[in-house]
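Example record

Each entry pairs one chain with its bound ligand, 5'-O-[(L-methionyl)-sulphamoyl]adenosine.
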Amino acid sequence: MTSEKNSFYITTPIFYVNDAPHIGHAYTEVAADVLARWHRARGEDSFLLLGTDEHGEKILRTATANNSTAQAWTDRLVHDAWLPLLETIDIDNQDFIRTTEDRHKSNVQRFIQKLYDDGFIYQGAFKGAYCVGCEEYKNKSDLVAGTGDYQGQEVCAIHSKPVEELEENNYFFRLSQFQQPLLDHYKQNPDFISPESARNEVVSFVSRGLDDLSISRSKEKFDWGIDIPWDNSHITYVWFDALLNYVTAIGYGEDEAKFRKYWPANVQVVGKDILRFHAVIWPAMLMAAGLPLPGQIFGHGWLLVGGEKMSKSKLTGIAPNQITDGFGSDAFRYYFMKAVNFGQDGSFSWEDLSARYQAELANGFGNLASRTIAMVKRYFDGVIPSAGEYSASDKKLIAVAASASSKANEAIDRTAITEAIISVWTLVDELNNYITTEEPWVLAKDESNRDRLATVLYCASEGLRALTVLLSPVMPKATAKLWAALTAGTLGDLAEQNISEAGSWGQLANPTVGDLDALFPRIESKDE
Ligand code: MSP
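Structure tokens for the complex follow.
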């Protein structure tokens, strides 16, 4: 999914700033960051865009309820909560767009004006239901029976709250015209919507027919949004405004060279709750504007609490730093990418996190690294020795390194992050197994085994080198420390290593290893 221009443009949804982030939001950001870092490690010009969705009734109401203006409220949340999150979970993004910025607002207007001039927008009467929580017009079939306070009423299936009845004279986008072009695109580009369950859902939704979409709201109700350029008694529907961030951030309407460099996006990662906006409305908007469609819309699953989508509005949100304060950002990133099969739902539990931290990170990977380096120090004065002739077990290790690397790289091309990590972990397991069977500490007891000991420690170190490169997109901090200790800079920076070549054997050339603190220190539990 790499464009010929050697650029890799990846986006996440832009987040509502009605509240502070929880681990569900952080999950999307980490996934996109792992993919972006992986492509960067292949030498591509990888561009990760994040941002915040700041207009609309939901945010205005929250601000008002907190005695704030919408602008002051969003400024505060962006600076106090959403930007600091990037550090908390170690995100390397190239831009962060806010929909209240001029570069966004003016080019949203440019885009809408073009669609209006080209006949894709008309004025009409809207009557129907609207969920402010989703900022979405709802059909009867989207509603479910309410419980508790809302017993006897129909409520939004996601927010479990009643919807509002709207009757307005609005502008409509001719979405219905795009039913067949969308279905054709899905057919000709089977990976456009991924995973397959997401694709099937969208294809069956679109096959049932599409209604035109109201894309404006009357200012008589509220005015927190972008003016419709030809009629300033209306503001742009917040989703129509928000979706355009993916192009306004890279210069749509004002920096043609930059826009052409990055658009179309290679992968757009979204939660499955907002798949239809991204796989139906968004491509139809692009088609209407004559712009190419992104390579892939990937709909990931939800982090669940008590079997339900974790959400702030249902008071089930966990703040990311509740996890990173104790476990660190690397463990956070590793845990969610490995424990929740990317594309499916998964439940978070502290027990599972602690157990995996101990077994997989501290004992599996961290211990392997510290043991290997310690043995190089003890038996070879800290200089990684050269290898002699390879035995059958060495050859097996070499083969596992090659296949872990090629399988992981191939999985990333399918946005299969969990599968990629599982492939890399075959090398962790093989290295641990190799050291246990080769018993370098036994070889070290007899000087006549010196050559064999050298080969074993070379192989262990070289395997660790491959592993460090392969894990760098997932755990940037731990791998940077390990890289420094293992290579002493003889191979250049970790960032200069090409991850596609990670599995090609024989790269380490006798560096003097450095000190390595425990990569995943023991976590004191609260009651100790
Ligand atoms: N502002 C819109 C998106 C506009 S994009 C043009 C929006 N924002 S949101 O803040 O409500 O949620 C954004 C995303 O957060 C979801 O699509 C999903 O990626 C992520 N998640 C929110 N809760 C989540 C979980 N419980 N689990 C996993 N991801 C979750 O929708």
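The mean pLDDT is 95.
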